[in-house]
Write a structure and sequence with these properties.
The protein is of the alpha+beta class. It contains one helix and eight strands; from the N terminus they run αββββββββ. The protein is elongated, with a radius of gyration of 19 Å.
């Protein structure tokens, strides 16, 4: 009986250690990634003041969206209701992006008021993240799990309205959930794309922003 109890204890302990490692190792890997970027003098943490949560991740409200200044808010009509996003470097292919929505359980979400592909301004797209072991191409609750693996110079492709737009990654940034400055373009005349998800993997402490510019 004693041996049986001991064996059961060891089995349960092993299972517990395994499950803990499945959570701890991805977070540890993320922290190492963050430290390496800091050592490369890449500005990760935003210096912009925190005002209110960025909707689409912090809050889920279809009728209440972040503030855009009049010069940054899109005024053009919607020519289509969705488009597709591909990031070859992380093998993300034709992810479905729904235009003008704050709902992203079954798709990526294009922030209402942000630019459309090819336009001046900043296309702002939000998606869920998770632990990398839960990533599957068709699982939109973990669709951006590999986004931290994107590097400066990588291409991001958008198929919209029968056209193909290619954006080049300019950098990565980690911001506070209340930093709404990232929804605006870095400068008014450029054509930018921002992808946002939660970090560390499986947690909601910060937001990762990948900024790209139209080639």
């Amino acid at each position: 009986m004693f041996n049986a109890k001991k064996v059961l204890f060891l089995i349960l302990l092993s299972v517990g250690v395994f499950l803990l490692s499945q959570v701890a190792l991805p977070i540890l890997s993320y922290k190492i990634w963050e430290i390496n970027l800091r050592h490369q003098n890449i500005p990760l943490i935003s210096s912009l003041p925190a005002n209110q949560p960025i909707l689409g991740v912090s809050l889920k409200s279809e009728g209440n969206f972040p503030f855009f200044s009049s010069s940054n808010r899109r005024t053009t009509p919607l020519p289509y209701s969705d488009f597709y996003l591909t990031i070859p470097s992380i093998k993300l292919e034709k992810a479905h992006v729904v235009v003008e929505t704050n709902s992203f359980e079954n798709n990526l979400a294009h922030l209402p008021g942000s630019a459309l592909p090819g336009e001046k301004g900043n296309i702002f797209i939000t998606g869920h993240s998770s632990l990398t072991q839960f990533y599957q191409p068709e699982n939109y609750k973990a669709i951006m799990a590999n986004l931290p693996k994107v590097k400066k110079g990588d291409s991001i492709l958008i198929e919209a309205g029968g056209q193909l737009f290619t954006y080049e990654v300019k950098g990565l940034n980690i911001v506070d959930p209340k930093d709404i400055g990232v929804i605006n373009p870095p400068e008014p005349n450029g054509r930018y794309l921002s992808l946002m998800t939660c970090v560390p993997p499986g947690l909601y402490l910060k937001r990762l922003i990948v900024l790209a510019e139209l080639k």
